[in-house]
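Data availability excerpt. The first of two example chains:
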Amino acid sequence: MTENPKAKISTHSVFAWIFSLLFLILCAAILISTISTFAQFFFSSAIFYSENEIPEVIINAISNLIIALAMFELYVVIKINIHAEAQLTALHSLLESAPRFIIVVCAALALEGLVLVIKLIQDQKTEELLAPIAVIFSAAALLVALGIFLKICPRRVGITDAPDDTREI
C-alpha cells in the first residue's frame, strides 16, 4: 500500500533542528549586538573622534559580522540536510552546499587575518604579524584543497566521470 508521507522523527533530525535553530538564534544575536554597538557609538560620540576609535569599532563590527555570516551558513547547510528526502538527495545537496560553506569560511578567515594585520599595524606591533599571515595562508590552502576536491569529485552523484564531449549541440 502507500506509506505515510510524514517524515519520521529520529534523533538525528531532532538534533539537526536544535542545532540549526541555535545557529540561527546566535547569528541573530550577534547581528543585533553588532548593530546596537555600532549605533550606540555613532550616536553617543562627539563629531570629532579620537585617533583610533572609528577603525576599532569598524574592525570589531566586521569581525562580528563575519562570524554571524559563518553561523548563518551553518544554519543553511543543516537545513538543507534536514529537508533531504533520500540518501542520494542528501549526498547531492551536501556536495552542493559544502563548497559554499567552505568558501564562506575561507573568506571569513582571510578577512579576519586582514583585520588582524590592520589592527597590529595600527598598534605598531609588527613583530606579531606572523599569526595573521599564517591565518591568511591557511585560508588560501583551504581554498586550494577545495579546488582539488571539486576537481576530483564527480559533478553528479551516481554518475561516473564521463567525457563532456558526448553532448550534441
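And the second chain:
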Amino acid sequence: MKLRRTTTALLAATAMTASLLGGQAYAADATSDTRYDTETPPAYKMIGDLVIARPFAIGATAIGAAAWLVSLPFTIGRNTSEATDALVLAPGYEAFVRCLGCTSGYEDWAKSRKHNNHTQP
C-alpha cells in the first residue's frame, strides 16, 4: 500500500512538472536562440552531460517540484512565479531544453520569456 501511494505521488509530481514545462519549453522563439549556431560542444562534453549532468538535473527538477508544491500555500499571492522559476523551471530547463553539452543559458531564456510576456498586450 505504501509503494502504491509513493508511486502515485511520484507520478503526480512528474505529470505536474511536465505540464509546467510543456508550455514553457516552446514559448521562446527558436530563431532568436543563437547558442546552437555559435556553440558546438565536443563529444566528451556531450557524453558527460548525458551521463552525469542530465540525471542530476532531472532529480533536481523532481525535488524542486516537490518543494514547490510544499511551498505553494506560503507563496500564493506573493512570489509564486519566482518560486516556480527557481524550483521548477530552472532545473527543468537544464534537464530538458538545453542542448546536449551546451553551457547554461537559462538566465537569457528567462529574460527573453519575461520580456516577451511583458511586451504582448
